[in-house]
Structure to design on (668 residues):
């Protein structure tokens, strides 16, 4: 056996990037920098703030004398508004997600069928996702305006609103002025906002079910409902979990909807953790308490993140 | 049990750009085992899917048990199908897969279990019932797919290359089992394959398909001995039929029809002699193949392994073919002509 001659220098350079030990770290580098600078650093800062007595006027941590232990968390939790915000966050998220799961499944099923104008409908369904949240919410803000609401106008024309009608004698519903209506409005906007993404994810999941498997179910004598509940939905389950976790995180951490639509009102009834952290920490100047409020979400989000990673790993192993 | 019939059925894809199945007329006999044989891409699967109702024919009619079923969905046609890709339900275990058609038919639990055990027993997969499809080998998946088709009592079995992924040994036994099973229950079966050995061995009749049309339909013997055209003649048999051009005709004969001596001693009126040059032998154990050139055409003879060929490698030898074994085809169209001995005699070699 002869020993092969060493590869010429230019050859070795040409295959430099084929080496995973070179290419891997190189490609990961920007992501790592991004995460450290924009996620890691603020997170550490938030944790430090939450255990200190900093304010907007004096945000410096000089030494151990600035650390106050769990005092911020205690103060925050003893505040009735915070508890309301915590409850709202959870209720808004769960309620909107239940609707999103159901609607997204229905929409995905409909959109996966063959019909004329399918592309247009798909485009329209995706539209809310492509508009900036703030703009979309402003649109809703106008639709739910206390005087000029087009919804009220339509209801008046249909005889549902106004003197001697189903929804009372007033000329307006004051959607954002009454607690229950305002809460419902926030939930509706959340649904409107996350539905497109969930639908698209489910649509991708549906089209990844092999045609032969659907054909087999057809031949085996399964009708629509049996196919839906025994074939499609079970096969969709892992993807549905991914979609749900995504929209859970989006909704849980969302600031814009409550902030733009209601500013947490009326009387804090649509306050959520992120708006309350903003009002308390930035507008109220109590940076430490604001950080503590924001961090309340952290354990929940970590649990969700772990769930996501687990799912990803499980589908990798399949 | 039922007769399956297609009447001038045609399938086009992409708005007529691709014609995959063209005017196919096939009619099974009740309880028949009909094999659709053809090269890859000839439209076998498409034809089967149309019969199963998974694809709408562009034109033509499909009849099952004397009823036009064109408008009926698959589940109304009472068929069982095995897919080329198995199409098992990935989230159900083997038991769930096999029982699915029974569940869909609302058969009671006890009967379900009895039938699942029976089908699993026949196919030798009783020890796999709790596994998921992804934990099975290709051959095991295929048997699960077969079991799922067998548990029902369908009008028709449609099988799309159900044995293609089994190893040679398992395939032979599965072939035998399948045939016996089909014979026993007597359900009309349409079986797709591109394996001629499988087709010859299993089919009551074979429909040879090429380019979306049926080239010939008949018993394995008909098709082998009396091919309707040069495609069928060369598609079946390994090595295929020899075709020697003579004028505007092609003279065909099987490699095994070559003999070292003329039929009936020296009487050359009942056989034809051919001179093979630059011959080469290939020993195959039970037999040997003798390759050579015959009037410029590559030609092959199949002989007993101990046959004494009186020629060295590269030499030449004269071989004889009985007149009865000669088949004549039109050179232009490739279609079979009724053999005309006169033509054969005038073209005679020696
Ligand atoms: N949906 C489709 N659109 C366009 N062309 C198609 C479609 N389905 C099948 N074809 C074409 O039709 C032809 C026949 O396909 P088919 O699957 O019936 O072949 P087959 O005889 O089963 O081949 P194989 O033995 O490889 O399974 C192929 O050329 C294929 O490319
Ligand atoms: Mg096929």
């Amino acid at each position: 056996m002869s020993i092969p001659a060493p590869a010429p220098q230019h050859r070795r350079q040409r295959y430099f990037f084929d080496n995973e030990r070179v290419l891997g770290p190189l490609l990961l580098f920007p992501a790592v920098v991004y995460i450290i600078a924009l996620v890691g650093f603020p997170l550490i800062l938030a944790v430090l703030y939450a255990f200190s007595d900093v304010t907007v006027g004096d945000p410096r941590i000089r030494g151990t004398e600035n650390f106050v232990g769990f005092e911020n968390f205690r103060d925050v939790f003893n505040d009735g508004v915070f508890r309301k915000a915590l409850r709202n966050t959870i209720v808004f998220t769960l309620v909107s997600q239940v609707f999103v799961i159901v609607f997204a499944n229905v929409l995905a099923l409909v959109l996966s069928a063959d019909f004329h104008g399918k592309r247009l409908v798909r485009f329209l369904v995706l539209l809310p996702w492509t508009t900036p949240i703030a703009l979309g919410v402003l649109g809703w803000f106008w639709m739910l305006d206390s005087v000029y609401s087009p919804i009220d106008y339509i209801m008046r024309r249909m005889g549902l609103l106004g003197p001697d009608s189903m929804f009372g004698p007033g000329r307006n519903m004051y959607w954002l002025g009454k607690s229950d209506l305002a809460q419902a409005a926030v939930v509706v906007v959340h649904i409107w906002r996350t539905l497109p993404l969930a639908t698209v994810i489910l649509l991708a999941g549906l089209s990844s079910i092999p045609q032969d498997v659907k054909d087999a179910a057809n031949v085996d004598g399964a009708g629509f409902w049996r196919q839906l509940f025994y074939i499609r939905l079970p096969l969709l389950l892992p993807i549905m979990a991914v979609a749900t976790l995504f929209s859970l995180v989006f909704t849980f951490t969302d600031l814009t909807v409550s902030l733009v639509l209601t500013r947490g009102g009326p009387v804090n009834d649509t306050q959520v953790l992120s708006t309350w952290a903003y009002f308390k920490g930035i507008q109220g100047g109590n940076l430490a308490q604001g950080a503590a409020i924001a961090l309340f979400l952290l354990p929940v989000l970590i649990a969700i993140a772990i769930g996501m990673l687990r799912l990803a790993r499980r589908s990798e192993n399949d | 049990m039922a007769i399956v019939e297609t009447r001038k059925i045609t399938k086009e894809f992409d708005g007529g750009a691709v014609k995959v199945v063209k005017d196919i007329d096939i009619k099974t006999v009740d309880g028949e085992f009909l094999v659709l044989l053809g090269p890859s891409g000839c439209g076998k699967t498409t034809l089967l899917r149309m019969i199963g109702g998974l694809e709408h024919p562009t034109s033509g009619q499909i009849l099952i048990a004397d009823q036009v079923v064109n408008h009926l969905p698959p589940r109304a046609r009472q068929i069982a199908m095995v897919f080329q890709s198995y199409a098992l339900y990935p989230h159900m275990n083997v038991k769930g897969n096999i029982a699915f058609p029974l569940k869909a038919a609302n058969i009671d639990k006890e009967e379900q279990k009895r039938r699942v055990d029976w089908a699993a027993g026949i196919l030798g997969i009783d020890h796999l019932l709790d596994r998921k499809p992804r934990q099975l080998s290709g051959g095991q998946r295929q048997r699960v797919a077969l079991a799922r088709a067998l548990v029902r009592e369908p009008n028709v079995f449609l099988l799309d290359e159900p044995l293609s992924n089994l190893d040679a040994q398992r395939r032979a036994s599965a072939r035998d089992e399948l045939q016996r099973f089909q014979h026993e229950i007597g359900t009309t079966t349409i079986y797709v394959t591109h394996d001629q050995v499988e087709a010859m061995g299993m089919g009551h009749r074979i429909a040879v398909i090429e380019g979306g049309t049926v080239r010939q339909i008949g018993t394995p013997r008909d098709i082998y001995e009396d091919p309707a055209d040069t495609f069928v003649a060369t598609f079946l048999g390994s090595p295929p039929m020899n075709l020697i051009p003579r004028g505007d005709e092609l003279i065909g004969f099987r490699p095994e029809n070559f003999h070292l001596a003329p039929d009936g001693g020296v009487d050359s009126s009942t056989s034809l002699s051919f001179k093979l040059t630059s011959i080469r032998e290939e020993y195959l154990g039970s037999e040997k193949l003798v390759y050579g050139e015959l009037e410029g055409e590559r030609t092959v003879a199949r002989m007993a392994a101990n046959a004494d060929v009186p020629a060295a490698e590269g030499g030449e030898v004269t071989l004889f073919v009985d007149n009865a074994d000669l088949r004549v085809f039109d050179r232009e169209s490739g279609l079979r002509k009724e053999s005309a001995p006169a033509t054969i005699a005038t073209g005679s070699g020696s």
User: Anything to note?
Assistant: The two ends of chain B are 57 Å apart (CA to CA).
